[in-house]
Amino acid sequence: MIYPIFPSAVAVFLFFVAIVLGISFYLGTKAKSSKGYFAAHGQIHWFVNGIAFGGDYLSAASFLGICGMIAFYGYDGFLYSIGYLAGWIVALFVIAEPLKRLGRFTFADALDRRFDSRGIKLSAAISTLLVSLFYLIPQMVGAGALIKPLLGLPHVVGVLIVGVVVIVIVVTAGMVSTTWVQFIKGSLLVIFCTILTGMLLGRGLSVNATGEKQVVVVAKDGKTLVNGVPQGHGAGEADLVPFGRVKKLPGGATATGPLGPIAYLRTLEDSEIEMWSATKSKLPDGSDVTTYTPKIVKGRDLLVPGGSPTFKGVRSPKLTDKLDFLSLMLALFCGTASLPHILIRYYTVKDQAAARKSTVVGIAAIGFFYILTLFLGLGAMTSGVLDPTNNNMAAPLLARAFGQFLFAVISAIAFTTVLGTVSGLIMAASGAVAHDLLTNVMKLDLGDKGQVFAAKVTAVIVGAIAMVLGVVFQKMNVSFLVGWAFNVAASANLPALVMLLFWKRTTKQGITASIIVGLVSSLVWLLLSAPAYRDVYGLDPAKALVPFSQPGIVTIPLSFVVLVIVSLITPKPVPVTAVQAADH
Amino acid sequence: MNADKSSDGPAGDDAGVPGLTHSARLGLFLFAIYLILYGGFVGLNAFAPQKMGEPIESLGGINIAIAYGIGLIVAALVLAVIYMLLCRGEGESQEAGQ
Predict the structure, then answer these.
(1) Do B90 and A352 count as a contact with CB atoms less than 8 A apart?
(2) Which partner from A59, A110, A472, B47 sits 20 to 30 angstroms from A446, CA to CA?
(3) What is the DSSP string of A232-270?
(4) Above 0.90 for ipTM, yes or no?
(5) Do B69 and A104 touch (CB under 8 A)?
(6) Set of chain B residues whose Cβ sits within 8 Å of the Cβ of A314
(7) How many angstroms away from the CA of A365 is the closest CA of chain B?
(8) Which residues have a Cβ under 8 Å from the Cβ of A524 and sit 6 or more positions away?
(9) pLDDT over 70 (residue B17)
(10) In this predicted structure, which of A144-158, A326-340, A452-466 has the lowest mean pLDDT?
């Protein structure tokens, strides 16, 4: 679909960016030392840090990807919400306090506290860098996906805008400005999604005339025909009519009026919804034809697992078909507490009690938001707004059903969402290079200012790489890519963190080997999987070399096993008490 | 990094030895509870997806999939708040922390 451009959306977005940059420049004058740059002086209030956790974590994938997946396939998108939130339990109950106690600026600090090993620092830094880069891909793809409907600019421009604005934010004031950007974004996201959900429930559900079959032909030269005429909004042109309506309400009603949250879900279960099916074919001249045919689905069939291509395996009787789902749910559970940009946020508060309290605030904000995504996704499904060619746009399009202003605000927030998460990721990567690699592994004596300068240079370089990746991977669904990043993070980092905390026999060689094996095995697996074949290399997905696409269920245990075996065959670590005696 | 060590936590920390503190034990206990809840959810989805569509009349008729899913989110928050309340005061920075 071609979206009309709303100047108000552009204005609201520019307003947000101006505020965010203004704050960055103001705070930039205060953050000169390395402790200021990497950890915001360790002085962020726990409540602000908690909301910033939300701003850091609720990425474009959470907002756009999950809403889109629920709107298109129903319940399956909510499975991501549940997995993402469950990961915070690992972060709070297992990782948060020891990590805060042991580290200074980065996750490598904490891992290495007992050992002072270059191998650990090096492998942890590489893992941080790669995981951050991997997680940056979906964020940048999300930025590109948004810019088109929002400002009418091509994908690559969206990627460039986000890249440049974030580099400016990070370079001016490091973790201080990053924290405030994330705080503002986290608050806005929760507040406006609450408002939108309130309006949705206030409107209730109503029956709408159903759509008709539509045919889209994309010729080899890129020209697009919709139902036989050129795509557009002018005379003699046509565009796709949106899908997703209520076809029949329970009891034959035409409109429900305002509904409570439970009644909304219950009514939807008992209704019939008009979705669509898409079939693709090719014309002799090489044009691609997609036919969208309306299909009526029972609401109750949309509110159970297995409706999406991603998770259809759960309905299969074969165990191997279910492995993708099990593996992803494991990776989401283990991944949150292994994400470097989340872990560094534990160093911005003053003590373990503050780390604990801010995690609880984060869980409250994030959990509440994920419940809202369920309503927003289902609301988009039933409001006659869905663009069948782009599932990342469901949430902004739903907002448009409630007026142009809300559309402008939600679109601008979605864009700001990308800024917040990308800033955190680039911070994590720049800390890994400047603090871990240059200062601690290569033992360069940069001094405090030199370390900050090196971090800023890294931020620029990582930002530039992220922009390139955002263009290369533009065809992939952002939720799916984020799922992959969780797999890599969990495989590389979690076994090392957990075993260090709970197994005395863990050695430095064991930690190093576990990080490297987890990182390499999960990355290689992903690069050999069917979706990578199809969407990245353009090859036949049936020829992929691995049996399912989510590696976590294999590579997380593998990384644990490697740690245990290598630790057992290497010399016992020096008893901790001796290390402490030497320290104090 | 040895020089920094005394500056970021109360002295005499166990530097990551298996969880001996009150908060670590409690954390593991609450973690185990959640793990069972989450495991049950994932298992139901994977091995009995049809079961997830059954309505629960006592919850206004919403199905098990929705109720269990929202329940997991609420349970995470409840356990987190319990943890925070029971650990109150532990791990506050003393003068050494700053």
Answers:
(1) yes
(2) A110
(3) SSSTT-B-PPPEEEEEE-GGG-SB--S--HHHHHHHHHT
(4) no
(5) no
(6) 45-46, 49
(7) 10
(8) none
(9) no
(10) A144-158
pTM of structure:
0.88
B13 touches A at CB < 8 Å: yes
Q: Which helix (H) or strand (E) holds A296?
A: strand A288-298
- Summarize pLDDT for A191-233 with one digit per residue, the tens: 999 999 999 999 999 998 777 888 888 888 878 888 888 888 8
d(C-alpha A146, C-alpha A186), whole Å? 18
B49 closest CB neighbour out of A86, A262, A304: A304
Task: Please provide residue A430's backbone torsions phi and psi, each rounded to the nearest 5 degrees.
Answer: -70, -35
CB B73 within 8 A of CB A367: yes
- Residue A356: name the closest of B6, B70, B71, B23 by CA: B23
Of the candidates A299, A307, A300, A304, the residue with the CA atom closest to the CA atom of residue A246: A299
Residue A392 has a CB neighbour count (10 Å cut-off) of 25
A39 burial level (CB within 10 Å; 0-12, 13-18, 19+)? buried
Q: Do B27 and A263 touch (CB under 8 A)?
A: no
Place of tokens 């601690």: A440
* Closest residue to B53, CB basis, from A300, A363, A370: A300
Scanning every residue of chain A, which has its alpha carbon at the shortest distance from the alpha carbon of B69?
Answer: A82
| Alpha-carbon distances of A189 from A139, A177, A199, A387, A560, rounded to whole Å | 16, 18, 15, 23, 37
The answer to whether A462 and A430 are in contact (CB under 8 A) is yes
Distance of alpha carbon A222 from alpha carbon A238, whole angstroms: 16
DSSP H or E run through A27: helix A7-28
Identify which of A92, A269, A580 has the shortest CB distance to residue B83.
Answer: A92
Report the C-alpha gap between A461 and A467 in whole angstroms. Answer: 10
Cα separation, A53 vs A25, in Å, equals 22
Task: Give the pLDDT score at A579.
Answer: 47
CB contact under 8 A, B49 and A370: no
Q: Render pLDDT for A17-57 as a digit per residue (tens, 0 to 9).
A: 888 788 877 877 766 677 877 888 788 889 999 999 998 88
In three-state secondary structure terms, A272 is: strand
With a cut of 50, say whether residue B30 has pLDDT above it.
yes
Q: Which residues of B touch A333 (CB under 8 A)?
A: 38
List all residues 6 or more positions away from A18 whose beta carbon is below 8 Å from its beta carbon. none
Find chain B residues with C-beta within 8 A of A300's C-beta.
Answer: 53, 63
With a cut of 50, say whether residue A425 has pLDDT above it: yes
pLDDT tens figures, A297-334: 999 999 999 888 888 888 888 888 888 899 989 999 99
Mutation site, B14, B33, B64, B84, interface A, largest A CB count within 10 A: B84
**Minimal Cα distance from A266: which residue of B?**
B62
Question: What is the residue whose two structure tokens read 């103001």?
Answer: A26
Nearest chain A Cα to B61, which residue? A266
3-state percent helix, strand, coil for chain B, nearest multiple of 5: 65, 0, 35
Q: Compute the distance between CA of residue A578 and CA of residue A221 in angstroms, rounded to an integer.
A: 72
Residue among B18, B66, B80 minimizing CB distance to A502: B18
Q: Taking the CB of residue A341, how many other CB atoms lie within 10 A of it? A: 27
* pLDDT tens per residue, range A519-555: 999 999 988 988 888 877 788 888 888 888 889 999 9
How far away is chain A from the Cα of B81, in angstroms, using its nearest Cα?
7
- Assess whether pLDDT exceeds 60 at residue A358: yes
A488: amino acid identity, one letter: V
Specify the pairing of strand A229-230 against strand A383-386.
unpaired
Which helix (H) or strand (E) segment holds residue A273: the answer is strand A272-282
